[in-house]
């Protein structure tokens, strides 16, 4: 290796190290891109009905915030009421347990009384665990503040990207060599289509799971059935792990009424998860995004290991985008062409009449629905 190759290798290593250090920022940027792509497709749908671009964007953003407000309005009040009920149900349960232990001591031989735990000894044994939980609660509060700041950052980035998406797209395309820019633009179109398909499939699966949960919990007579169903549908965005997370609050609320209800809720959620995993998601995603179940699970394990909870939440859209780039660049453009020696060499000359390519960092005020100029291709035989 000569000096230039060593410098290039060191530059690649340093670039990978810098990217690894800012991986969380890159994930937040990707979350903003996914959200902006979804809202942009919704705004384009409104534009097909004759609504101007500005009003279409405002309408799409308004629907998004209305869904967020409605979600918290459905979830927070019922859960707060159940938590308030839990605060006086727990002391009643402890008092009942203490009376049951005292009654048991009167019926057993005196030699076994020291081995029967009372409430005070149980509290002393649980004191370290309680202290640990309280310590984790302070960490949870600080982590919640950090999460709020990250959400605000994602929303701000989404607004910036949504205001003029074509300008940011042109800047990204200009990062590639000139002979490959048209190809990159086509790959971005496929990524946008696949992300839109994933969003539609996820919304359909969320709606079916939420509806099944509401109906089942209502039949069982569990309190806050609507809130629990909405939560189950939202957590369905996290495949495999989301349904497991949603069963915990449902069982806790059902346990306040009767133990058999908690068991019934567990059985109900098990059948809903089986239906979602084997029928709903495969059928819906087969028409939207073609991802193998094993690939989905491996991607979740990979992203949660290296990127934490945010990586788990974004595992599916990251996998969709990574699949397209690997399929188009690595497989089609590199591996499929490996070792091919065509008899005729062709020189590809791309001439573009786009007015914004000379100044890629400038704003693009053209209509988003305008057709892209057709490139003129000239081939010269050797």
Short description:
The chain is an all-alpha fold. Helix content is 76%, strand content 2%. The two termini are 33 Å apart.
Shape: elongated
Low-confidence stretches: 343-382
Q: What's the order of the H and E elements?
A: HHHHHHHHHHHEE
Number of helices: 11
Ends: how far apart? 33 Å
Helix and strand content put the structural class at mainly alpha
Radius of gyration: 28 Å
Largest sheet: 2 strands, antiparallel
In percent, how much strand structure appears in the residues?
under 5%
Strand order of the largest sheet: 1-2
The number of strands is: 2
| Proportion in helices | over 70%
Question: What is the residue-averaged pLDDT?
Answer: 75
Describe the structure.
Strands 1-2 form a two-stranded antiparallel sheet. By secondary structure, the chain is mainly alpha-helical. The C terminus is likely disordered. The protein is built from eleven helices and two strands, in the order H-H-H-H-H-H-H-H-H-H-H-E-E.
């Amino acid at each position: 290796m000569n000096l230039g190759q060593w410098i290039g290798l060191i530059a690649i290593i340093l670039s990978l190290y810098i990217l690894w250090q800012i991986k969380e920022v890159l994930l937040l940027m990707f979350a903003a891109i996914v959200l902006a792509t979804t809202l942009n497709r919704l705004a384009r749908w409104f534009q097909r009905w004759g609504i101007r671009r500005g009003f279409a964007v405002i309408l799409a953003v308004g629907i998004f915030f209305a869904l967020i407000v409605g979600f918290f309005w459905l979830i927070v009040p019922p859960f707060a009421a159940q938590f308030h009920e839990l605060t006086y149900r727990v002391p009643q349960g402890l008092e009942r347990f203490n009376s049951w232990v005292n009654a048991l001591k009167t019926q057993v031989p005196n030699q076994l009384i020291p081995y029967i735990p009372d409430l005070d000894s149980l509290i002393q044994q649980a004191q370290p665990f309680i202290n640990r939980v309280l310590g984790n609660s302070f960490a949870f509060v600080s982590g919640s503040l950090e999460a709020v700041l990250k959400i605000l950052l994602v929303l701000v980035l989404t607004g910036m990207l949504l205001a003029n998406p074509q300008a940011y797209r042109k800047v990204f395309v200009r990062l590639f060599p000139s002979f490959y820019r048209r190809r990159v633009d086509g790959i971005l179109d496929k990524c946008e289509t696949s992300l839109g398909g994933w969003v539609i499939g996820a919304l359909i699966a969320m709606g079916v799971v939420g509806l099944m949960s509401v109906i089942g919990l209502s039949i069982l007579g569990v309190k806050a059935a609507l809130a629990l169903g909405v939560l189950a549908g939202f957590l369905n965005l996290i495949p495999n792990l989301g349904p497991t997370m949603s069963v915990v609050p449902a069982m806790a609320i059902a346990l306040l009424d009767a133990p058999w209800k908690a068991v019934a809720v567990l059985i109900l959620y098990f059948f809903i998860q089986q239906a979602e995993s084997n029928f709903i998601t495969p059928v819906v995603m087969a028409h939207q995004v073609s991802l193998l179940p094993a690939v989905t699970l491996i991607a979740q394990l990979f992203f949660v290991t290296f990127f934490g909870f945010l990586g788990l939440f974004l595992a599916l859209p990251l996998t969709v985008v990574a699949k397209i780039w690997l399929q188009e660049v690595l497989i089609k453009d590199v591996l499929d062409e490996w070792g091919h020696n065509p008899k005729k060499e062709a020189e590809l000359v791309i001439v573009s009449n786009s007015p914004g390519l000379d100044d890629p960092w400038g704003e693009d005020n053209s209509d988003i629905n305008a057709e892209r100029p057709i490139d003129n291709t000239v081939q010269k035989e050797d």
